[in-house]
Amino acid sequence: MLFAAEPVKLPPKEKFHLVLLTGQSNMAGRGVVTPEDKVPHPRVLMQNKAGEWVPAVDPVHYDKSMAGVGPARTFANLLADSDPSITVGLVPAACGGSPISSWEPGKKWEQTNSHPYDDAIARARKAMQDGTLKVILFHQGEADCGDAPSKLYHDRLLTFFKSLRTELDAPEVPIIIGQLSKFPGSKPWSEGKKRVDAAHRAMTQELPNVGFAESDGLTQNPDNIHFDAESQKEFGKRYYEAFRQLRASTHATDSGASER
C-alpha cells in the first residue's frame, strides 16, 4: 500500500533561506548519483517540479533525464550548518545547454521545453512566498564560447543579472558565478571561452555583491564536458566560500559605514 508523504513543516519566512540555482548543465549537475547523495540534510529542502517543498536529495534538478549531482546540495548543507536556526531551500532553475540568449523574458529553450528566464522568476516568486531569497548561484557560458556569441556575452549577462534582481525585488541579493571548466589534459581555452570568463570576472566589479568561484583542479566525467560528482561537491564548497567571503566583506563595509 502506498502512503502520501508527510507534508514538510516550514520554518518562519525569515528563517527559511532560499538559494536560486541558474545556468546550464554544470549547475543542474551531471555527476553520478550514489546512495549517499540520497541522504538529506535535516534542514535542507528543495522545490520539486510541482513546486512543492521536499527533502533535498540529488538530483536536485529535472531539466533533462541525465540530471545528477551538482554543486547545490553541498552549498546548501554548508549554509545550513553555519546557522542551526535556519532551514535552506533550493530553487532549481538551471537548463542544460542553454545559451545566455535563452535567459531573456519570453524566450523558450527547446532542449528542455522550457522558458529559462520566465520559469526561474516564477519558481523563485513561488518560493519567496515561504522564504527569503539569500543568494543566486550561476554556472553558464559553455554554450556561448563561439566567436560570435562570446562577443555579445558580457552585455547579455549584465542585462540578465540586473533584470533578475529587479524582477525579484532583490537589488542587493548576492550572486555567485562559477568559473568555466579547466579540466586536466584539455586543450587550451579558445578566445571565445576567454571572453566569457572575462565577462564573469567583470561582473564582480560592475555589479554589487557578486562573487566568483574558481574551477582550478576540478575533474570531468568521461564526456569531457561536465564536472564529475566529487568535483561538483568540491565546487559547492567553493561557491559557499565565495559567498561567505562576500557576506563577510559586506558586513565589514556596513559596520564601517555605521561607525562613521
Automatic annotation (TrEMBL):
Q: Which SUPFAM superfamilies match?
A: SGNH hydrolase
Supply the alphabetized keyword list: Hydrolase
User: Know the name of this protein?
Assistant: Sialate O-acetylesterase
The record, for PANTHER family, names: 9-O-ACETYL-N-ACETYLNEURAMINIC ACID DEACETYLASE-RELATED, ESTERASE, PUTATIVE (DUF303)-RELATED
Does Hydrolase appear among the keywords? yes
Residue ranges of coiled coil? none
The keyword DNA-binding belongs to this UniProt entry's keyword annotation: no
Question: Which source organism?
Answer: Victivallis lenta
Tell me the GO molecular function terms: hydrolase activity, acting on ester bonds
The Sialate O-acetylesterase domain, residue ranges: 16-244
User: What InterPro entries does UniProt report for this protein, alphabetically?
Assistant: Carb_Esterase_6, SASA, SGNH_hydro_sf
